[in-house]
Amino acid sequence: MKKYNVCSAQKKRWLCAVILCATGFFSSMYMGCSKVNAESAKNTSLAEKNVGSGNAIVSPEVQKLGRVLSGMSDRAKEAIPNGDPQEFLADLHKVLEIEKTFRTDDVSLYYLIDKKHNIGASYVPKDLIPVKNNELWNVSRNDLSLRPEAYHALEELSRAALADGIKLMVSSTYRSYAYQERLFSRYVKEDGVELAERYSARPGTSQHQLGVAVDFGSITDDWGDTKMGKWVYNHAADYGWSLSFPQGYEDVTGYMWECWHFRYLGKEMCQFQKKWFGDIQQFMLEFLDAWKQAK
Fold this sequence. Notes:
By secondary structure, the chain is an alpha+beta fold. It contains 13 helices and seven strands. Strands 2-4-5-7-6 form a five-stranded mixed β-sheet, with helices on one face. A two-stranded antiparallel ribbon has the order 1-3. The two termini are 32 Å apart.
């Protein structure tokens, strides 16, 4: 990742500009830039105050964007590329409009679940569809199921894989709270709680409980180097599937690299993730959650 040591008035990360415009001041602890032009900061602050004076006006949404971004981790901020805040907001509103079309009797496909966000013991996805062996994919066991949206997206992904001569293996899908509780307990007995937490979710915090996550293939690191693994990695996002736990981001996701674990979010969200968040699912979902909570 390229480091930015100097932040000039002419060329700086748009994150610097957004937070500067939103707050009227600059802090290097937020932006990772050592200096900012004092006159630029002064003019920006004046632009906020002089509504109707002909100077640039900072919109409430850009101010909100600045507040949300400033609250994200330094590593998340580093992943956000140079760009236009208005373009970012336009893309954000596209995915939020899509979210309005989701069924209202279940949690959003964009629901943030991780080590800090628990779905609870009682949650079960609506209308789970069994995932059985068929002409599109193979399964490793007979008790698999997915939420309808994820099931139909898996069909689309599998048809595309078959067209390239690859039949996918589905090894794990929906897991109930009780199932995850037993699984995590077993891993703790085998490896101890500290190691178990690096590769297994505590009950209530697993993406599998949402019914939108799939583990493909052998569920081992070498699967990523197989023909199937490479195809899924290169094409999953085209069909709305996002890699949840990428290599080198354990400090972000809380989990070791899992080349086999993909979550269905939809094609537009995968595009949003790739364009604005360094293709890191956790950064995007944390941002979206913070955006919805921000005033």
